[in-house]
Write a structure and sequence with these properties.
The chain is an alpha+beta fold. The protein is built from 16 helices and 19 strands. The strands form five sheets. Strands 1, 8, 9, 10, 11, 12, 13, 16 and 17 form a nine-stranded mixed β-sheet that branches. β14 (351-356), α12 (366-375) and β15 (379-384) form a beta-alpha-beta unit. The longest helix has 17 residues, at 448-464. It is globular. Residues 1-29 have low confidence and may be disordered.
């Protein structure tokens, strides 16, 4: 990441020379939106685009094939229409006419083909979502045909965000797309006013095909990892909006900020080492169940999330067909039962486990609270310190047997499978699986009439097998100053840049 951002600084002059100037003369002239972000930019390369906190950096410069609305429905963007064949393995898109990239080259089917195949083949952090794409064809300038090796119930949702950010093939061929983004989006990067690691400035692009999306003349994104500094910047007026932590809610309200709640994530422990390759004890389901019984969900919700959460023992969202209300309290606090399970598994004297320290990224109290709750049943946690920038890469690298995380939920069970359960899922870095998970996943993917029942069965299985130790569905909090409004998006951590508005 350091090399990418350093390169961006070096090439800033070149990009500024070719960047279109901002428009003026309409009712939005001189309006600037400044948003504080929690995580710094990783890369502008659409082939390596990630989810969660990263799309907001790429949305100003890249259009996607379809656009996700706040209620999680999809509407046309670069694609004006799409259609499945009867087998649900061939997806045909009709593209918008007359769209160009900011370098003047045409956005056409060949450009889309290059980008989609590149996303699949890039080995990027979410490339596995395209693992089932066997071919992308461009039979005409305005037609793209995507062929899958099997049905994928979530692929349109992926294409509504980072999986179909479309960059200029010329910039891709030049090898500069990661630092000099060139897309067909509503804004262009202003390199003269961009300082990597500090702020990224985008100006409105002349001639953009949908001026309704250009609410602001200028958009500034400021990465501020420290939660105290981030809220201070919002209160002081340095930025207009940003995410905060639950422990900051009273301060935010006291400062007159507007607060937006969005139940996006589940919070808890991901037990990666289910085969016991690093910590043999974790291969025993009784130990994993003991970890679940050790968590005091009510205490965690009160101390960490200030009550802005719902206790749960399952990873699937309430809107998902996999959701089972009875699983929300599958594991109540029961320290004695947890100790007995540990003893039955042969670990009456406990064991130690190394986990990444979440203090720099999440609430610093997590290490004390979770550490003590696990210590109560004999599990000693060694917290491995690091920076906010390191946390996610370390979690998904397979370096740790367990980790605390807040993971996105989805209304589509197949999407949760590809994110956290499949052998090649981003949050299953050790690739663990079982015949039961494989069979149920295949049914969910390929048998629409049986998918809902299979999803509920899968949920019960992974809950009983304690692949995870969730304790809550939590509210993600966004705040804005009184002169800015925004719409949060279901199942999306950070609101898209399209859904901010001046209050007057």
């Amino acid at each position: 990441m350091v090399g990418v951002l350093a390169a961006l600084s070096v090439t800033a002059g070149l990009l500024a020379a070719c960047a279109p100037q901002a428009q003026g003369g309409d009712e939005h002239t001189s309006r600037t939106l400044t948003v504080a972000t929690k995580i710094d930019l990783a890369t502008f390369d659409p082939g390596l685009a990630n989810s969660a906190h990263q799309p907001v950096y790429l949305q100003p410069v890249y259009d996607s094939l379809v656009r996700r609305l706040p209620d999680n429905t999809l509407e046309p963007m670069l694609a004006t229409a799409w259609e499945w064949d009867e087998s649900k393995t061939i997806l045909t898109f009709t593209l918008r006419h007359g769209v160009t990239f900011s370098d003047g080259t045409p956005m056409n089917a060949d450009a889309v083909k290059i980008n989609l195949l590149r996303f699949r083949d890039s080995n990027g952090p979410t490339a596995a979502r395209f693992a089932g794409v066997t071919a992308v064809e461009a039979p005409s300038d305005d037609t793209v045909v995507v062929t899958l090796n099997a049905p994928d119930p979530a692929i349109l949702d992926y294409l509504g965000n980072q999986a179909s950010f479309i960059g200029s093939p010329a910039a891709i061929d030049a090898g500069t797309i990661g630092t000099e983004p060139v897309g067909s989006g509503p804004y262009v990067l202003d390199a003269d006013k961009t300082v990597p690691g500090s702020q990224y400035t985008y100006v409105k692009r002349e001639g953009y095909w949908d001026p309704e999306l250009q609410v602001y003349d200028t958009i500034v994104l400021k990465p501020i990892p420290d939660m105290t500094a981030r809220l201070s910047a919002i209160i002081s007026g340095q930025v207009d909006a940003g995410t905060i932590e639950p422990i900051q809610l009273d301060q935010a309200k006291g400062a007159g900020l507007s607060v937006y709640e969005n139940d996006v994530n589940w919070a808890g422990l991901i037990i990666f080492d289910r085969d016991g390759t690093m910590v043999p004890a974790l291969a025993d389901v009784r130990v994993r169940q003991a970890i679940n019984y050790a968590l005091d969900r009510d205490a965690l919700i009160e101390q960490i999330h200030k009550g802005l959460a719902k206790p749960t023992s399952q990873i699937f969202a309430e809107e998902s067909s996999a959701f089972d209300p009875s699983l929300d309290d599958a594991y109540g606090l029961d320290v004695e039962k947890a100790k007995k399970l540990m003893a039955d598994a042969g670990y009456a004297d406990g064991f130690s486990v190394t986990m990444p320290d979440p203090s720099a990224t999440f609430n610093p109290a997590l290490t004390a609270v979770i550490g003590q709750q696990l210590a109560d049943i004999g599990i000693a946690v060694n917290w491995d310190s690091g920076t906010t920038a390191d946390y996610i890469p370390n979690v998904i690298s397979g370096k740790y047997p367990m980790a605390y995380f807040t993971l996105n939920q989805s209304g589509i069970p197949w999407q949760d499978i590809t994110v956290a359960l499949a052998p090649d899922a981003t949050f299953n870095p050790l690739g663990t699986t079982t015949p039961e998970v494989a069979e149920l996943s295949k049914t969910i993917q390929t048998e629409p009439d049986e998918a809902d029942e299979a999803a509920r069965t899968l949920n019960r299985y992974v809950t009983e097998q304690a692949w995870f130790a969730p304790y809550a569905r939590i509210s993600t909090l966004f705040v804005s100053r009184p002169d800015t409004t925004l719409e949060v998006q279901r199942f999306q951590v950070v609101p898209s840049i399209y859904y901010y508005r001046p209050a007057s």
